[in-house]
Every structure is written in C-alpha cells, then in structure tokens.
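Researcher: Structure for this, please.
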Amino acid sequence: MQFVHINDIAIHYDILRAGDDRPVIVFINSLGTDSRIWHHVLPKLAEDYTILTYDKRGHGLSGLGNPPYSIADHAADLAGLLDHLQLSQVVVCGLSVGGLIAQGLYAARPDLVKALVLSNTAHKIGTAEMWAARIATVEEKGIGSILDAIMERWFTEPFRKPENAAYQGYCHMLVRQPTFGYSGTCAAIRDADFTEAASKITVPVLCIVGREDGSTPPEVVKSLADLIPGSRYEIIEGAAHIPCVETPAAHAALIRGFIEQLDKE
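Model: Predicted structure, token format:
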C-alpha cells in the first residue's frame, strides 16, 4: 500500500512488478468501488505482467479533492501517477467510469497508452437528467438509498444472495465510499462524451461486457466497439457489470489473450 501526492490529493496505489521487460497493465475501478475489485484477477496475471492498481480521487483511500470532478481531472491524476512511476506505453484496463477515464487518458496523453481494455463502459453513459437525479438522491439521502437498485445492475441474481458473504462485502464497499466522491464522479460521467474521440483511437482496443450488465448492457458496449476502428468485442457469460468479481478467470483470460496478441503484432 503506497501513497503519493498527485495534483491536489494523495493517491493510494499498489504496484506488483514482474520485471522491467514485462508489459504493464493499469486497472481503473468503477464508480462506487475501490481497487480491491481486481483482487481475484491480479493473481491470474501478476506472474507475467507488471500490475498497477489505484483508487481514483473520491474513492477508497485516495483523497477527496474538490468535487464535483471531470473525467479530465481523473485522467490527469492517472497521468501524474504514471509519470511519477516513470511508466509509459501501458495497457490501460478501465471498468465503467474507469473506461471513460481510460479514454480520457488516451485523448490527453496518448504517449502513455499502448492499448486499451474498455470493460463494461461506453463512449457516453446515461443521460444528464439521470445523473442529476442520482446526484440529488445520494447527497440528500446517502448512497445506501440506492444500494438495491445499483446491486441489481452490478451483479447477476445468483450472486445477489443474502448468504453470499462476498455480495455483502461489495454492498459495504459501495455504501462506505465518500458521498461527495461518489456524487462528484457522477458529475464527471454526466458531462463525459467520447463519441467523436472514440473514432480517433488508433491503438489496439478490446471491449468487454457481461451478458447481464444492467448499467452498460451489451448493445451499449457494442456501440462503443463499433466506433473504434479495428476494436475487438467480447461478451462474458454469467456476469453483469463487474465481471472481474463474478467471473475473474474469464475476465483475466480475455485480457491475457489480448495482450499476447499485441506481442505477436
């Protein structure tokens, strides 16, 4: 567990180094989660790749800063962290808002990006009205007031069992995020639109979605893939919005296969 001041906040990060000659994968977590969502994916990749995880501002152990945020704020934090660690030409894997941050990083600092894995995300997520309503609700009533609705989008029905301790743990993760870090990132999603920028991406891209994703359904992720020249599109069965939790082996296998193909090109 490590910390560094980037821009106006302390960023929490962890890096697992596999060797100077190994590709680097950066994982960006989703709204209302922290870097622990990648816990079951990392062991399947860490022997062969250097792995960087971190908590975006307003989440986990990173600082709150001054919400509301923009995707540019989040992307600048990641660029600053990569510069601090002297890393470039990394494979960036972003989930949900993490995928928007990945697109924002590429738009601002393409020198840092070798390839993109855009998981359960889109070029634009939701509507301004939807996000305004969510911001108002969580700031008035707390994140717990939307817990059940969010969990129905995040996880499949078999996972959402009261006796499933892991499910309870991810419920706790959501409600324990800072309220204004959550709502501030909702504002960033509300204002983000990479529809035009997506068509200009020239690095290799893999788009992934869970078959039962209720936040960014397969057709939404497919619309992103269709915008990006030469991108790959994969569906994971038995998963919803956070496949790295429900189906980590399948998620890791797609990422590994994508990177191995990069090495052959």
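Researcher: Any notable elements?
Model: The first helix runs from residue 71 to 84. The mean pLDDT is 97.
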